[in-house]
Specification:
alpha/beta, 7-stranded mixed β-sheet, 6-stranded mixed β-sheet
Length: 360
C-alpha cells in the first residue's frame, strides 16, 4: 500500500533501481547497490564511494558503506560487483553505519577478502556499535533466547507458541553476523572523514542503535542516512532485554531534530526505500508520527491498564509475523517507557508478572 506522505517527498531516480549484483551511479564517485533480505523488509541499500588512501603514493579504490547480511546470495552478489563494478580497483575500507545484521553482517568477509598484511582493509564504525556487535555475535541481543522470551513475557507476550519461537531464536543475531572484525577505526560525532576527493561529516544518532553514524557530504549535497531517516517506514526504536528500563524514543527524536541543521534539499540515501529529497519534511513527518502514536498509547492506557502486548494493535494496524512481532514489542515498550519516564504514566506489575501502564 502506498504511503500518502511519500507524495510530499521527491524521488529524482523515479522507479529506477539497481539490479542485485550491479551498481547505479548516484553522483560522481557514488554508486548505489541493492541487496536482498529474507524478511518482509526485503532489501537493503548499500553504497560505494570512490576512495584513495592517504599519502602521495596512496592507492585508488573504493569504500564500501554497509554490507548486507551473511548469506551465500549476498556473497555472490558482492563477488559480481567486485568483478564487474569496481573498475578493476580494490576495496580500501568498509564503513558501517551501525551494528544491525543487514548493515554489518558481511563486514568480516569483505575486510578479510580485501586485506593483505601490508595493506589491511579496515572496518570503520562507532566504538559503541562495534562493541555491541561483538557482544551480539556471541550471544542473543534481545530478539531471541530465554532472556528475550522472559522479557517479552513480562510485557504481556505470553502466548506459548510465540514464547517457544522466541526461545528457539537464541542465535538469531549470530546466524546473520557470525563474526565481527577484531580491529576497527572509530567514527564519532562531528568527525570529518575524507573519502577520495570529498569530506563526509559524521552525524551520530541514538535510539535505533547505540551510536548510529550517518554521513553527510556538503560538496555533493548527499546524506547517507542509514536507518535514521527512511522515506516509507518509520525507523524501529526498541527496548530489549539487555537494557530493560531503556528510554530510546526521546533519544531518537532528539537525533532527528539535530539533522534539521542539514540543507533541506539534501539528497538522502536511505538504507531502505529509494533516494529522496525532502529531508526536513520527512523529519517533520516522523516527529508527528511518534507524537500521534504517543497520544494513542496514552488514550489506550487511560481506558484500561495496558501492557506492551495490549497496545500492539494500537501501534500496528496490520498482521505481524514473529519477526515483526518481536520488533513491534520492542517499539511498544519504547513508547510506553517514553510516557512512563516522562511522568505521564505509572508502571504496575500484576500478580501474573506482567507490567501494565496506567495514567500517572
Amino acid at each position: 500500500m502506498a504511503n500518502p506522505l511519500e507524495h510530499q517527498l521527491s524521488y529524482p531516480f523515479g522507479d529506477q533501481l539497481p539490479d542485485t549484483g550491479t551498481t547505479l551511479e548516484i553522483a560522481p564517485g557514488v554508486c548505489w547497490v541493492r541487496m536482498g533480505l529474507p524478511f518482509a523488509l526485503d532489501h537493503i541499500n548499500l553504497w560505494l564511494l570512490r576512495d584513495r588512501e592517504a599519502g602521495p603514493d596512496g592507492r585508488e579504490g573504493w569504500a564500501v558503506v554497509d554490507c548486507g547480511i551473511t548469506s551465500d546470495l549476498t556473497r555472490q552478489a558482492w563477488e559480481r560487483i567486485f568483478a564487474e563494478g569496481l573498475d578493476g580497483l580494490p576495496v580500501l575500507r568498509v564503513i558501517v553505519t551501525h551494528m544491525h545484521p543487514d548493515h554489518i553482517g558481511l563486514a568480516h568477509w569483505i575486510t578479510a577478502r580485501w586485506s593483505t598484511p601490508e595493506q589491511p582493509c579496515r572496518l570503520w564504525i562507532s566504538a559503541t556499535d562495534w562493541n555491541a556487535a561483538r557482544t551480539a555475535s556471541r550471544q542473543t541481543t534481545g530478539f531471541g533466547g530465554e532472556a528475550a522470551a522472559a522479557f517479552f513475557g513480562s510485557h504481556g507476550l505470553v502466548d506459548p507458541v510465540a514464547q517457544q519461537k522466541v526461545r528457539e531464536r537464541g542465535n538469531y543475531y549470530g546466524s546473520m553476523v557470525p563474526e565481527v572484525p577484531g580491529q576497527f577505526r572509530r567514527l564519532m560525532e562531528g568527525q570529518a572523514l575524507r573519502i577520495g576527493e570529498h569530506v563526509w561529516t559524521c552525524h551520530a544518532g541514538h535510539g535505533h542503535s547505540p551510536e548510529h553514524i550517518s554521513l553527510h557530504c556538503e560538496a555533493l549535497g548527499l546524506l547517507i542516512s542509514g536507518d535514521m531517516v527512511l522515506p516509507r517506514i518509520s525507523t524501529n526504536v526498541s527496548v530489549i532485554d539487555l537494557e530493560p528500563e531503556a528510554d530510546p524514543l526521546p533519544l531518537y527524536l532528539a537525533s532527528l531534530e539535530r539533522m534539521r541543521r542539514l540543507p533541506a534539499m539534501t539528497l538522502v540515501l536511505p538504507s531502505h526505500g529509494k533516494p529522496f529529497r525532502g529531508l526536513h519534511e520527512r523529519i517533520a513527518q516522523l516527529q508527528q508520527h511518534h507524537e500521534e502514536r504517543l497520544a494513542d498509547v496514552l488514550r489506550a492506557c487511560a481506558q484500561a491498564p495496558c501492557s506492551a502486548s495490549d497496545i500492539l494493535p494500537v501501534l500496528f494496524r496490520r498482521a505481524l509475523d514473529l519477526h515483526q512481532t518481536t520488533f513491534a514489542m520492542g517499539e511498544a515498550i519504547a513508547h510506553l517507557h517514553a510516557l512512563w519516564l516522562a511522568g505521564d504514566l505509572r508502571r504496575l506489575r500484576g500478580a501474573d508478572g506482567v507490567w501494565r501502564f496506567v495514567p500517572a
